[in-house]
Amino acid sequence: MERQQGYEHELMSSMNVPRAVAVMAVPSVISSLVTVLYNMADTFFVGQTGDPLQVAAVSLTNPIFILMMAFANMFGMGGSTVLSMAMGEKNEKRVRAASSFVTYASVLVGLVFAALLILFMDPILGVFGADAETYEFARGYTIHIAWGAPFIIWSAAASFIVRAEGASREAMVGSMIGTIANIVLDPIFISVLGQGTAGAAIATSLGNIMASVYYLWYFLRKSHMLSISWKDFTWKNGILTRICSTGLPTAIFSALMSVSTIVLNQMLVVYGNAPVAAIGIVFKANMFITFLQMGLANGVQPLLGYNYGSGDGKRFRAVESFTKRTCLAVGILATLLYFVLREPIIRLFINDDEVVAYGVEMLTAYMLSGPVIGFLFVNMNSLQSVGHALEATVLSVLRQGVLLIPLLYLLQAMFGLTGVIFGQSVTDYAAVILSAVLWSRVRAGLPGGKDAGRAADSAGSGTVSA
């Protein structure tokens, strides 16, 4: 155990920056890509039925899953930030309190979420845009995703906490367990047992139960600091306020994504269910580009939090700078690959000419912000890590709410369906520019100021060593 703690201390405080970023980010990226596969699985296997209405139903109910992730991200990201800073301060009691709080809060919110879904299902699906053709498919999905809510929220939050302890590999394993189970169970429930969209939700919930069991084992048997003990649970001493306020930007980002998806679906359903099915496919396909860079940013968040907590401003800046350059390179390569393979990617999900035609146009529009979106995620994580949660919250609100939703209405009025399709990329570029302005001001005020920032840029320019 002492050897493991020594390695974790070296990783966080003194390891070569590119290597430390690689150690932390690679498992996080893999976990993010596993999440992408996990999210793609339902749409992919439902698409193999050849029924655009079932694909549209999954697209219409997607805001439910996104909203669950909003709570998971709030507890997970907020908890991991508090935990990382507590580790940097050598405050083990606070580490245990934070991890216990995240566990019980996630389960409680999941139970409340499930109850609300079941009690108010009909009006919820009506708001989402379900019509006579898609209602039963959407209802079948919602019923079975509801009872899995506590496991979905906690397993996602737990992955952040485990990663923050320095156990990136174990966090990745937990994510892979849920994804592999979902991919294996999807065709069984959807096609073999003929459950369609309901089968997709059953597979998703069962996969998260399996992931939750793994994380429970890790907390109880393998971790030397994390706790799920009720004795360690508390919301006092800033645990509740710091976790929720720090995780709030990420939660708002996800919650507003849910709202904007509802608005987008309501706009598209006017043109028929084919565009709704297409946007569901494009949303899942484009997650590869977005989550690839989000995984990089999330992976280094514990490094940022630890070094800020320990007062090492130079190393903090080196991690931030190197991560941004990596995101840019990855974003450009991924976007180029997607541009070349647009139509095959859409046809991989469903071989319906009308849906494919809409999908190719939509995917092209969504890819435009691919090369630069990583800067937004790194800037937001950096702001959270130094305690500027308000600025990060503003960025979240702007990207998915204040800017996007009005822009969708404006562009639809000006350009019709084409305007709606390009709304997200226009918003992304505005958010990236604003995040750069906000972070540059905060960064200049940190210990060492601009000079330390230039030193960090030099320190982060090395290569990953063996």
Automatic annotation (TrEMBL):
What molecular function terms (GO) are annotated for this protein? antiporter activity; xenobiotic transmembrane transporter activity
Please indicate if the UniProt record lists 4Fe-4S as a keyword: no
Gene Ontology biological process terms in this record? response to antibiotic
Note the topology in the membrane: Multi-pass membrane protein
Statement: the UniProt record of this protein carries the keyword Mitochondrion: no
> Which keywords are on file for this protein?
Antibiotic resistance, Cell membrane, Membrane, Transmembrane, Transmembrane helix, Transport
Predominant location: membrane
Q: What domain of life does the UniProt record list for this protein's source?
A: Bacteria
> Its GO CC terms?
plasma membrane
Q: Where in the cell is it found?
A: Cell membrane
Family (UniProt): Belongs to the multi antimicrobial extrusion (MATE) (TC 2.A.66.1) family. MepA subfamily.
Task: Indicate what this protein is called per its UniProt record.
Answer: Multidrug export protein MepA
